[in-house]
C-alpha cells in the first residue's frame, strides 16, 4: 500500500483552493460556474457525469481529481460495480499507466467510503 492518502490530498488541496478563492476570486467563480454547469443533471445523470470526470482524472494521473471525484461519486451513491466498470474502460483506453491510476481510484474509494457503508471484503 502506498503512503498516499486521498483524504489528506483532498484536505490539503481544499486549503490551497481557499487561497485561490481569496486571491483569484474571479477565476475561481468562473471555474465553479463551469463545473456547476457541466455537472448539472441533463441527458446524463450527475452520477454518470462524475464517472466521466473520474475517468479523465485517472487518465490524466491527477491524484486530486481522483480524490474529489470519488468523494462526489460516493455522495451520489455510486456502486462498487459502477466504479469498477468505469475503471475497466479507463484501463482499456489508457493501457498500463492508466491501469495503475485506476488502482489508485480503488484505493481512494476504499479509503473515503464511510466505514458503515463498506462491504466486509473492504473493511
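^ Assign residues to that structure.
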Amino acid at each position: 500500500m502506498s503512503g498516499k492518502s486521498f483524504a489528506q490530498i483532498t484536505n490539503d488541496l481544499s486549503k490551497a483552493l481557499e487561497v485561490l478563492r481569496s486571491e483569484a476570486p474571479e477565476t475561481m467563480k468562473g471555474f465553479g460556474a463551469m463545473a456547476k454547469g457541466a455537472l448539472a443533471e441533463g441527458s446524463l445523470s450527475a452520477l454518470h457525469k462524475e464517472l466521466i470526470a473520474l475517468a479523465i482524472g485517472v487518465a490524466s494521473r491527477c491524484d486530486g481529481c481522483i480524490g474529489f471525484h470519488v468523494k462526489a461519486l460516493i455522495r451520489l451513491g455510486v456502486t462498487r460495480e459502477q466504479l469498477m466498470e468505469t475503471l475497466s474502460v479507463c484501463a482499456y483506453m489508457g493501457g498500463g499507466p492508466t491501469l495503475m491510476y485506476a488502482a489508485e481510484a480503488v484505493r481512494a474509494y476504499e479509503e473515503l467510503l464511510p466505514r458503515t457503508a463498506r462491504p466486509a471484503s473492504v473493511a
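The domain at 6-115 is CATH 1.20.1290.10 (AhpD-like).
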